[in-house]
Design brief:
The protein is mainly beta and about 800 residues long. It contains 6 helices and 49 strands. The strands form 10 sheets. It has a 22-stranded antiparallel beta barrel. Strand 41 and strand 42 form a beta hairpin. About 50% of the residues are buried. The N terminus is likely disordered.
């Protein structure tokens, strides 16, 4: 489907006549005197100042603390089934490196040197890298999802939007809560917060949580690991906030620490073909159909029952600090400074092939052993970031404006061993096998990023109805990478493998093609781009907003951390996007609506593709020509009565390449050849997504308390899981195997339902209780994974959680 002028005209006409609007709705607020939910004003900070969401000409979705609780959104990944046009996925081998996508803007890798396209802000501070951002949600004020480029006020790497997480801040009221919860999978948790106003000028808030849970995955392989439970949780967090507040001065300091320790979630094998590395798998593990049988067993049982031979572990530790200072120079002029600091350390080993064969893993299996419990060579990521933003905000009778300066710096390193293959390969001599073990240290290296920005935005009100917003930002990025990748030196003659007799050798070459003596090569590059926004707003009355906007976004270029030579160390360029959007927001008594229609012109798209060179697994990050993304979004909230509220959200996303001539490696000639990928679909981008919900407050007396039943259903269309399916015409030479490869890219549509019963002020007390059932239908649905069927011969899927039942009891004081 192509977006054209006629379709835009129809959309404009529909919005102006029917009053459907862009995407923010007030979630159900706490009921007063048992009158049930009602629509109320929602405050957002999408333009770096507090405003009524219905008056902001930006497509966005806001979820307050009550909505998050009712939908059982307990971590970032939980948003995957809550907001249309937004997907949260992962590569299938890590639960702590989520990939956020909005309107089809989705990065294809999570290495340190590749920025995300939907940055996550916590208390107005960006959190990089993506590792460690799948944090527990507790004691939050709200979460805001901004859709479309936010290149003016949020800057670099916001080509698809931004995700803003706002924790609850200290207030003047002495209050708090303690909540305990228990559920299936032996879940139990404790959460609480205490707000302490020392005086009118000084307040503290302390919040924390601890959660323990058994694994969602059961190991069913016929080995000593049978009965282990993977994808469990043992997490804790503590947050301290301090607020100083005087007549024209305020200072908010926030400190937070989070950690999680779990047995690694295993990807679920969903496809296999003897292509490239798959040929070795075929020789070692499918001579008698063993690999085919393993795939068949997985397809005929629950996706949460898995086979592994390596028991992995994943840990994450986060420390976060922010300081926000505001000073009102006058009633119409103020300054604001936001300082941020974050450190994160993650470790990971994981069986990445989804079978009980020692094929592919992060960390090295014990050669020749049936199982490995303590693998060597864990992936370790260590990152530290600083940022500071200075803002000057002002207003007159006609103008509101903001200008500012931004600085950011991140230093990070990554290390670890990746096992690509292990097994005994039969030789032409009967009964004689050749032991083969392929492993590497990649990606290994250091990443140093520094960014600067200067920006300004102003809104001029011609009168009470018409307004014009102009915004402009200039961003500079200094990127540096030091690659330290190593590859295996195959022993001659073959020896039984171990890390002592078969050490790695340096894979990094200098500019003349010679091996780097210290196995470290540093490259640097500077990128820059202007971004901006133009918005025309029309407000015919207090309850209606119509707007049209043009906005631009920029994602910095960089380097491939897996690179080893001149060719692979070439920097990839920045990607840019221009979005044309029209929207309408309106309210009529008990109905609030929002729609947006948009067209995005997306250029120099950064894509990471997989390669297997015969001895090493590699990836290449390229700029994949240009694309057009067009879509439509609608949200409706209807308070049918004081006791019944219905909501509907829908998003249509049509992403297609305008022209993409990709270069892929021909396995027969080991040369790069061109492939026309213009007709390929965007990976993990469903065209249609929708959610519906209902909340009904029962007619009970105040002495009994308030009882509410809530339910929701999320549905999404089918999608594909591969970046360049058209490359199969080159990378897969066998016709039958090529058909298998094409079939492997399809991911089915699914629907997930949730239910919740709330009993507030139980028997007129200070206690609340709730029962939540998430994924009521126990649907097995794919949210991520990796498809490398034409390089590794494997397709692995990551599934969402199974049905969970959680009861909670909360005491408010």
């Amino acid at each position: 489907m192509r977006f054209n002028a006629n379709l835009l005209a129809v959309a404009v006409s529909s919005m102006m006549s029917a009053g459907i609007s862009t995407s923010v709705l007030a979630e159900e607020p706490p009921a007063a005197e048992n009158k049930g939910p009602a629509l109320e004003e929602v405050t957002v900070t999408a333009r770096r100042r507090e405003e009524n969401a219905q008056e902001v000409p930006i497509a966005l979705k806001v979820m307050d603390a009550e909505y998050l609780e009712k939908q059982n959104i307990v971590e970032l990944e939980s948003l995957a089934t809550a907001v249309p046009a937004v997907t949260i996925s992962n590569t299938g081998t890590s639960s702590n490196a989520p990939i956020v996508a909005v309107r089809g803007q989705r990065p294809t890798d999570t290495t340190l040197s590749l920025d995300q396209s939907i940055p996550i802000y916590f208390n107005e501070v960006v959190m990089t890298p993506s590792q460690g951002t799948n944090l527990a949600f507790y004691d939050l004020s709200n979460i805001q999802v901004l859709k479309g480029p936010q290149g003016t006020l949020f800057g670099r790497n916001t080509t698809g939007g931004a995700l803003l997480i706002t924790p609850a801040a200290p207030t003047l009221e002495q209050e708090g809560y303690v909540q305990i919860k228990a559920g299936n999978y032996n879940l139990w948790g404790l959460e609480g917060a205490f707000n302490m106003p020392v005086s009118d000028n000084l307040q503290f808030r302390v919040a924390g949580f601890t959660t323990k849970r058994d694994g969602y995955q059961d190991v069913v392989s016929d080995n000593d690991l049978k009965g282990e439970e993977l994808w469990d949780e043992d997490s804790q967090g503590l947050r301290i906030g301090m607020n100083l507040d005087f007549d024209n001065f305020s200072n908010l300091t926030m400190l937070a620490y989070d950690e999680n320790d779990m047995l690694s979630r295993a990807p679920v094998i969903s496809g296999y073909a003897p292509i490239q590395l798959g040929g070795l798998i075929e020789a070692a593990y499918n001579q008698n159909g063993e690999m085919d049988a393993a795939l068949a067993r997985q397809k005929n049982r629950s996706a949460h029952d898995v086979e592994i031979d390596l028991l992995g572990r994943e840990t994450v530790e986060n420390f976060f600090a922010s300081n926000t200072t505001q000073f009102e120079i006058s009633d119409s002029l103020s300054i604001k400074n936001i300082f941020g600091y974050r450190t994160v350390e993650t470790t990971r080993t994981v069986d990445a092939d989804g079978t009980a064969f020692p094929i592919f893993s992060n960390g090295i299996s014990d050669y020749g052993a049936e199982v490995t419990r303590d693998p060597e060579g864990a992936e370790v990521i260590d990152a530290e970031q600083f940022s500071n933003e200075f803002q000057l905000l002002g207003s007159t009778d006609k103008i509101e404006w903001i200008t500012g300066l931004y600085w950011y710096k991140m230093n990070a390193s990554q290390d670890g061993l990746t096992q690509v293959f292990s097994g005994n390969i039969p030789t032409p001599a009967p009964g004689i096998f050749l032991p083969a073990f392929i492993y590497q240290a990649s990606p290994v290296g250091d990443v140093n990023n520094e960014a600067y920005g200067i920006f300004g935005e102003a809104t001029y009100h011609f009168d009470e109805e018409w307004a014009l917003t102009l915004g402009l930002r200039q961003s500079w990025d200094e990127r540096s990478v030091t690659v330290k990748n190593q590859k295996q030196a195959p022993p001659t003659p073959p020896l039984e493998f171990n890390l002592v007799t078969d050490p790695l050798e340096c894979a990094v070459k200098d500019k003349n093609g010679n091996t780097e003596p210290d196995c470290a090569r540093t490259e640097s590059e500077t990128f820059s781009s202007p971004t901006g926004r133009i918005v025309v707003s029309y407000t015919p009355d207090d309850s209606t907003l119509i707007y049209g906007s043009v906005s631009t976004g920029y994602r910095s270029g960089g380097f491939n951390l897996r690179a080893v030579d001149n060719e692979t160390l070439k920097p990839f360029d920045e990607e840019t996007v221009v979005t044309y959007e029209i929207g309408h927001k309106a309210e009529w008594d008990s109905v609030r609506t929002a729609v947006a229609a948009y067209v995005q012109k997306y250029d120099d798209i950064q894509k990471t593709v997989a390669l297997f060179t015969g001895s090493n697994f590699e990836t290449s990050t390229i700029n994949a020509a240009s694309a057009t993304i067009q879509g439509f979004e609608a949200d409706v909230m209807w308070a049918v009565t004081n006791d019944l509220v219905l909501t509907l959200g829908y998003a249509y996303t049509d992403a297609s390449y305008d022209k993409w001539i990709a270069e892929v490696r021909d396995p027969d000639t080991n040369t790069m050849v061109e492939v026309d990928a213009s007709d390929d679909d965007f990976g993990f981008t469903p065209k249609n997504t929708a959610t519906v919900s209902a909340s009904y407050t029962l007619p009970t007396s105040a002495e009994l308390g308030e009882m509410t039943l809530s339910g929701s259903v999320y549905w999404q269309d089918e999608m594909v899981n591969f970046a360049i399916p058209s490359e199969f015409e080159v990378t897969v030479t066998d016709d039958a195997l090529r058909e298998v490869a094409y079939e492997s890219i399809n991911v089915k549509s699914y629907a997930v339902a949730n239910l919740r019963f709330d009993w507030r002020n139980m028997m007129n007390s200070d206690f609340d209780s709730a029962l939540t059932v998430s994924n009521v239908n126990d649907k097995e649905y794919v949210i991520g994974g990796f498809n490398q069927i034409d390089s590794l011969g494997l397709v692995e899927s990551a599934y969402g959680p199974p049905r969970t039942i959680i009861g909670s009891l909360r005491y408010n004081f």
